[in-house]
């Protein structure tokens, strides 16, 4: 099994943190991405959705997994298991240094995660201490007004799945 760390980056203005609404280990936060079959290379047509709150019994190993999927082309099975406790919020300092922040670790067998999709359920902390929850980043950016007239902005959203050992 190969482990993939989902890392995110963005340009932040007047913000201190960007993270899932309930923190990086939010059990109800949905991760959307496509899967590439490790056997035949077939790419899923649509994004799949995994979250920590949904797990099924692993069919060929002890424990549970968050997704079991059969490739439509070669008909091999694969799994995606989320490993919590590895993520942290994207900070303003990381954004200014063009660094990526780790968000979630995925252990994959038979599949490779690709093309992460930013969606709904994000939390942003503004420099004045105000928090916005339930932020939708599906449009690729955000611009809101804080209580003291600041305009927090998020743009140039980026993500990568890095192999970790």
TrEMBL record:
Alphabetical keyword list: Metal-binding, Zinc
Entry similarity comment: Belongs to the UPF0587 family.
SUPFAM superfamilies named among the record's database cross-references: MAL13P1.257-like (SSF141678)
The protein, known as: Uncharacterized protein
The keyword Zinc appears for this protein: yes
One Pfam family in the UniProt entry: CXXC_Zn-b_euk
């Amino acid at each position: 099994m190969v482990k993939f760390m989902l890392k995110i980056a963005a340009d932040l203005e007047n913000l201190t943190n960007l993270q899932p609404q309930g923190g990086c280990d939010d059990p109800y936060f949905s991760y959307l991405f496509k899967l590439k079959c490790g056997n035949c290379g077939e790419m899923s047509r649509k994004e799949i959705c995994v979250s920590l709150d949904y797990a099924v019994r692993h069919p060929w190993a002890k424990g549970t997994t968050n997704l079991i999927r059969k490739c439509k082309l070669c008909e091999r099975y694969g799994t995606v298991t989320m490993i919590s406790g590895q993520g942290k919020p994207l900070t303003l300092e990381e954004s200014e240094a063009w660094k990526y922040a780790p968000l979630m670790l995925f252990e994959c067998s038979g599949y490779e995660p690709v093309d992460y999709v930013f969606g709904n359920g994000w939390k942003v902390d503004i420099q004045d201490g105000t928090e916005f929850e339930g932020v939708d980043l599906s449009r690729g950016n955000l611009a809101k007004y804080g209580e003291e007239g600041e305009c927090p902005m998020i743009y140039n959203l980026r993500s990568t799945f890095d192999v970790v050992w």
